[in-house]
Write a structure and sequence with these properties.
Length: about 200
């Protein structure tokens, strides 16, 4: 996306938003090449939304109620995000699967980050599942979102050692330290370079 205007990021969050904060901090540098134009959440009263407000970034909340029509929810989320004309959508700890309508509206421009080395340990509990399996190395993955669960083309990965005495919490925190750096560096690359995907492999131009 080489362009003189900063790459417009809409970031989706569900929790504490430390990944979001890393992006906000990175965007403060004008040479970074991106700006967070809006932050969306699927729930209210989370620290992630407060971080956006503290930085004077527009926010919106779009909950998925129990039993709600998921297709409708997906269409509404698409419209909310589209209103901010993103170049890139970053799912940063957003705990909902993005639907087909959303993914076709922002085709190839939605990224996600996962606290494990995909394709190992996809899903909601990457650190827990890696720990339970007994791996000695885990890590973080940033990838292009497709319609599967954590199954899109891989943009970047970084390894994190698992300690003997790790709990799910200590491992996840160590991974998140690396995950934040990886998300920031990968977003910088996406904001400033062109890329294409052939047979799942991401090629930078
Ligand atoms: C990250 O590890 C993300 O990959 C996972 O949830 C965590 C979000 O952390 N899905 P935070 O809300 O950005 O602090």
């Amino acid at each position: 996306m080489p362009d003189s205007a900063p790459c417009r990021l809409v970031v989706l969050v569900s929790g504490t938003g430390t990944l979001l904060q890393a992006l906000i901090d990175a965007c403060a540098d004008p040479t970074y090449g991106a700006e967070v134009v809006a932050v969306g959440a699927d729930r209210d009263s989370i620290a992630g939304l407060q971080r956006a407000k503290n930085a004077d970034i527009a926010t919106f909340v779009h909950p998925l109620q129990r039993g709600a029509d998921r297709v409708q929810w997906d269409r509404e989320l698409t419209a909310l995000v589209a209103a901010f004309r993103p170049d890139l959508v970053v799912s940063a700890g957003f705990m909902k699967l993005l639907g087909p309508h959303f993914l076709s509206a922002f085709s190839g421009r939605v990224i996600n980050t996962h606290p494990a080395l995909l394709p190992s340990f996809p899903g909601m509990h990457g650190p827990r599942d890696a720990l339970a399996y007994g791996v000695k190395i885990s890590g973080a993955t940033v990838f292009l979102v497709d319609e599967g669960v954590d199954s899109g083309a891989i943009l970047s990965q970084a390894a994190v050692p698992v300690a003997e005495d790790d709990t799910v919490e200590t491992l996840h925190e160590r991974i998140k330290g690396v995950e934040r750096e990886l998300l920031v560096s990968t977003t910088r690359q996406l904001a400033n370079c062109s890329w294409h995907v052939i047979d799942r492999k991401v090629h930078w131009e």
